[in-house]
Write a structure and sequence with these properties.
Length: 289
């Protein structure tokens, strides 16, 4: 349960400092996680980004304040992190469907987002098929691109990257290069510290391959690790997204394992039709007890 407790500690930190200009690094530190892994876990569990959560909570509190107090709207705007009344009014109207002035007069309905509390899910209705693998270091070869996980930028950029790979034939080249260490094409998330370019992760579309990378490709060594491998069955992208949510909401909180730091996660895809209801894929997560 320590994993859930750490995540809740980070959420409580956001709430306790909701009016302050806190950074994702400060929030993630409360969960003893990198900014990338915290944001990834948070978005998988809640379906929103950390930035969206903070914004929604601030606008919820702002609406409550406007409806019960008589302070100036411009002061409320500054209090909840907006530099101008115009920016505040635009964001406020987008969430609540009414202007701050109308909220002051309690005109219309408000959209409230309550304080988030993480709970362990013990449904058990959907069985999870998984096994453990101890694997020596191996090399992957493919293409990579840097992304920021702030505000879910990676959630937009990575699908575009896959679309390009499927259109230009790189996926076919990767299937041909595969050496069967892990059969298939891999989607690999590599966490790293923020760089001047503003990215906090590299995303690889690659395959296991020995030797010098062919022209146009790069290579990366994946360290030796103990992995938990989850079977994923069903069409993309829903089956993969649902599997990730089940892993973080049901398996990790009760398994006694944590993510092994410094080793990337991997999704493994086959050449089957991605829309097939019988499509078989895998999620590989490095773990430590």
């Amino acid at each position: 349960m320590a994993w859930i407790e750490s995540l809740q500690k980070a959420i409580d930190y956001m709430e306790d400092h909701i009016l302050e200009p806190i950074t994702i690094e400060e929030i993630a530190q409360q969960a003893n996680a990198s900014s990338f892994h915290f944001q990834r876990t948070f978005s998988i569990l809640t379906d929103i980004t950390v930035g969206d959560y903070i914004r929604r909570r601030r606008l919820t509190l702002a609406a409550q304040e406007l409806s019960r107090e008589s302070g100036k709207i411009i002061d409320v705007a500054f209090k909840y992190g907006y530099d101008t009344p115009e920016a505040f009014s635009k964001a406020f109207s987008r969430q609540h469907g009414v202007t701050p002035s109308e909220a002051r007069k309690t005109i219309g309905k408000f959209t409230s987002y309550n304080r988030l509390v993480i709970q362990v899910s013990l449904k058990g209705a959907e069985p999870m098929q998984y096994h453990f693998v101890d694997k020596e270091a191996f090399q992957i070869t493919g293409i990579k691109q840097g992304f920021s996980s702030t505000n879910g930028e990676n959630l937009i950029g990575i699908p575009k990257m896959w679309a390009e790979v499927n259109q230009n034939g790189i996926d076919d080249q990767l299937f041909q290069l595969n050496n069967d260490v892990i059969p298939g094409v891999l989607g690999v998330c590599v966490d790293h510290r923020d760089t001047p370019s503003g990215t906090d992760m590299d995303y690889w579309i690659a395959t296991t391959y020995d030797g010098t990378a062919p022209e146009g490709f790069s290579s990366l060594e994946i360290p030796a690790a103990k992995w938990v491998v989850f079977e994923v069955r069903g069409p993309m992208p829903d089956a993969m997204q649902n599997a990730w949510k089940q892993i973080f909401s049901e398996w990790f909180p009760t398994s006694g394992y944590t993510h092994a730091a410094g080793i990337p996660e991997m999704e493994v895809y086959s050449k089957e039709d991605p829309s097939s209801p019988d499509l078989y894929s895998e999620i590989w997560i490095p773990i430590q007890s």
